[in-house]
Structure of Phosphatase PAP2 family protein:
Amino acid sequence: MRRLIFIALITAGHVTSAQISSTEKIDLGFSQIEPKREKKQSSFLQAVKVPTMLIGLGVYSCASNDVVNRYEIREERNEHLPNFKYSADNYLMHAPIAIVYGLNLAGVKGKNDFKNRSLLLLKSEAIMAALTFSFKEMTNVSRPDGSDGFSFPSGHTAQAFATATFMAKEYGDESHWYSIGAYGIATTVGAMRILNNRHWISDVFAGAGIGILSTNLAYLTHRYKWKNKNSNLTLVPAYTSGPALYVSYRLN
């Protein structure tokens, strides 16, 4: 059961990072399908279908045990790894961000320039945070350890999959191994949230969906206006007591 769950998360992430081939005009003799409109519709569906399925699975698993029994998963954890308690997930969820900027510093160019990339990261983080905390407030699901009522969805998993999708978007075209590595890290974070007894499997599914959806929407709606190398806007990701983004604007 656990293997199937982790494989499903990796597969979902990998499918999401795949690029859509361009739509060609189809001449039927009496009408033409507009390629731009079809491409927009296909891009939107590609951006939302996998994360929506994951969120739906999370919601359903939270309300019913027909598909995935979250209590059985917790029982297996308590039986085999009752003393599992590690904090690596607090740092791994940000690892793809460090990798992306590290690769860029090393001279490996990604999909976007520094400013557009940073703005896309900021947008995805904002969307992810808004969705995650809205769900937490609305659902009020108790954690497996009973510490509070903010279990659903998993914020750590949402963060991990948002940054994994960010890395896949920026470097997935260079090599599929970047995407596989990014989603492998994210899946590890989701697994650790369960093993640390901080989240149910339903929380992890929903968190993964929210993370992927947030970054997909950020890229889908981005207009790439920040291409001027002499722009006064500066965006620099940072980490102090938590993830942060340094923003500055130079007045002429």
In short: DSSP finds nine helices and two strands in the chain. Residues 35-63 form the longest helix (29 residues). Residues 61 and 85 are 24 Å apart (CA to CA). Confidence is low (pLDDT under 50) at residues 1-33, 228-235.
